[in-house]
Amino acid sequence: MADLETFRAEVRAWLEERAPASLRGRPGDIFHGTWGGRRPDFETPDHERWLAMMAERGWTAPTWPREYGGGGLSREQNAVLQSELRRLRMPAPLIGFGLVMIGPTLLEFGSEEQKREHLPPIVRGEIRWCQGYSEPGSGSDLASLQLSAVADGDRFILNGQKIWTSYADASDWIFCLVRTDPGAKKQSGISFILVDMATPGVTTRPIKLISGASPFCEVFFDDVPALARDVVGGLNNGWTVAKALLRHERTMVGEIFARSVIGGERELLGLARTAIGPAEGRLWDPLVRDRIVQSAMDERAFMLTVQRIQDAARAGQSPGAESSILKVYGTELNQRRRELAVEIAGADGLGWEGAGYDPDALARTRDWLRSRGNTIEGGTTEIQLNIIAKHVLGLPDGGAR
Ligand SMILES: Cc1cc2nc3c(=O)[nH]c(=O)nc-3n(C[C@H](O)[C@H](O)[C@H](O)COP(=O)(O)OP(=O)(O)OC[C@H]3O[C@@H](n4cnc5c(N)ncnc54)[C@H](O)[C@@H]3O)c2cc1C
Prior knowledge:
The protein folds into 3 domains: about 1-105, Butyryl-Coa Dehydrogenase, subunit A, domain 1 (Orthogonal Bundle); about 130-235, Butyryl-CoA Dehydrogenase, subunit A, domain 2, CATH 2.40.110.10; about 240-390, Butyryl-CoA Dehydrogenase, subunit A, domain 3, CATH 1.20.140. The strands form 2 sheets. A 4-stranded mixed sheet has the order 1-4-5-8. Strands 2-3-7-6 form a 4-stranded antiparallel sheet, with no helix packed on it. By secondary structure, it is of the alpha+beta class. The longest helix has 29 residues, at about 285-315. Helix 6 packs across helix 8 (about 285-315). It contains 11 helices and 8 strands. The structure holds flavin-adenine dinucleotide (FAD). Flavin-adenine dinucleotide binds near residues 131, 134, 166, 376 and 382.
């Protein structure tokens, strides 16, 4: 404990001296921040300085081992670091799938060479990653994927397509599931491979979401050479690696929504007070009051579950099937809250664009539309319920991923 207090004092002094003043009080969230990569898009020069100084200490990936560029902190030390960052309300120096998906997976399954090659650039924010799992005919039934990888000496030649690949057009590398043994049983013929998006033959085409944004793409592979040494976890063993990564992804998605529901009650109350209506706005409406209270209670109950799972993680347990619980409930809560916000706003909640609407109202409408995808991305709710039934409740097999 004394060591931790010394550590806290050091961290606090270091942050007080260096954390850019312009970023204090601007915490951001996991989807809005510095993604880094070969074509970085820093919001301000201070965001760039903040990334550089945190990366130098390995504090963009605080618990990763120092030999791979990480901070080498214990879980307890990381908790101290995070609480000091929260105290100043600093934004994360770096966000992205490198830190939360492929990095932890490489730590578990990568060869020494792969860890040394790929982890330090992730920590420094030099390489941005995307996830090539889904294909046009293979989403929930992921194991039916067809992207072909044919061995050719010390490389594989890739042909086929991925779809719904988030931020593929802004990413530098993709981690991909490919079929390396078409004759084997579905799951057994899959490998997990890393591909540089700059390789000739890789092209992307953005797809528009209902919210109007284009955060994801189709990705095409035409005779793309990928190196055999970039297969992670062994040839035809990709399914095991893929499932481990999905657990990290679902934990992340659940935690994102857990964090985003914090403060939901205040936001809804504020909105209800200012929306059209008598003196206290829509708060006079007992049905609205009831739904806000229900939402607040659900958020608090959910946060207790999140804390329990985080405690297990701190005690060294990897995310298990419980990550599906976070994913299902976190995304549903987020959807309900967005829906309620739009309903409370009345006609103001339906603006798409134009001078007649204030920017907050327009953002609210688009957030609501964007939230429709939450129960699909990272594995649909129906599939998560199957996983919970089978692996958490021990019910008989329901069938899918
Ligand atoms: C915003 C967003 C971002 C995404 N980002 C990525 C990404 O970066 N990389 C990536 O690889 N993928 C990504 N995806 C794709 C996502 O993983 C798939 O959309 C998802 O797995 C569902 O697959 P599908 O779209 O093929 O639907 P389908 O599998 O065809 O499902 C259609 C419907 O049938 C239901 N269903 C299917 N099988 C069963 C079953 N066995 N039991 C009960 N119900 C079932 C599903 O729940 C769903 O309601 C993203 C999706 C979205 C919306």
